[in-house]
Amino acid sequence: MSEWFDSQKKQASNFRELLQERIERENPRRNLTVEETKRLAKLEKIADKLKRGENVQNRHLQTWLSEDEYAQIEAEWQEQLELRNELKDKPYDLKRYEEKLKQATFNYNRAEGYSSKGKHDTAKKFYNKSESLCEYALEILQEILHYDSSLRVWFDRDISFEVDGDLSASA
Q1: From what superkingdom does this record's organism come (predicted)?
Q2: Same domain, 147 and 112
Q3: Do 120 and 75 share a structural domain?
Q4: Does residue 163 fall inside a structural domain?
Q5: Domain annotation covers residue 80
Q6: In terms of residue numbers, what domain contains 66?
Q7: What is the greatest pairwise CA distance in the chain?
């Protein structure tokens, strides 16, 4: 039985070798020139630096990338800058919503502070104020999204005002 198994293994490995030889004959791999090998090594170093979050100077990119590759990177960088500028100019209504949310969080944190000091009556007032500001912030949010649904792109998740939704009037 062992001889038969060994013969089967040899046939399989012979078949793989024959297949590999045939592939290499039909699709020979081109060997890189010395210049191409040097360029590949430099580009790999640049990629490693970028993966580690380090800066790479433009002149290094210009030196080791082709003109088309560098132009593509430049175009993508400009696109990124435009996107960042767009996101800086937040609509007024969103700023109003964020301000109410900020006030609610502030009041909630004050309530937590008073509660930890044993001043429960004062804490309760700030908890109530925080909840009221959260409700007002939700009203603002619902109103602005009702009139301009394009503002939904400013949020990191879909906003649903359904009864079983994730939104609540608490910090």
Answers
A1: Bacteria
A2: yes
A3: no
A4: no
A5: yes
A6: 57-89
A7: 89
Is residue 78 located within the same domain as residue 99?
A: no
DSSP string, 7-57: HHHHHHHHHHHHHHHHHHHHSPPPPPPHHHHHHHHHHHHHHHHHHTT----
Are 154 and 94 in contact by the 8 Å Cβ rule? The answer is yes
Residue 96 lies in a domain: yes
pLDDT grade, residue 23 (50/70/90)?
A: confident
Given a cut of 60, whether residue 1 has pLDDT beyond it is: no
Averaged pLDDT of the chain: 83
CB 140: neighbour CB atoms within 10 A? 18
Q: If we measure between CA atoms, which residue out of 153, 152, 136, 145 comes closest to residue 102?
A: 136
Residue range 106-121, pLDDT digits in tens: 999 999 999 999 999 9
- Structurally, how many domains does the chain consist of? 3
CA atoms within 13 Å, Cβ hemisphere of 26: 6
Residue located via tokens 């089967």? 8
Q: Are 122 and 155 in contact (CB under 8 A)?
A: no
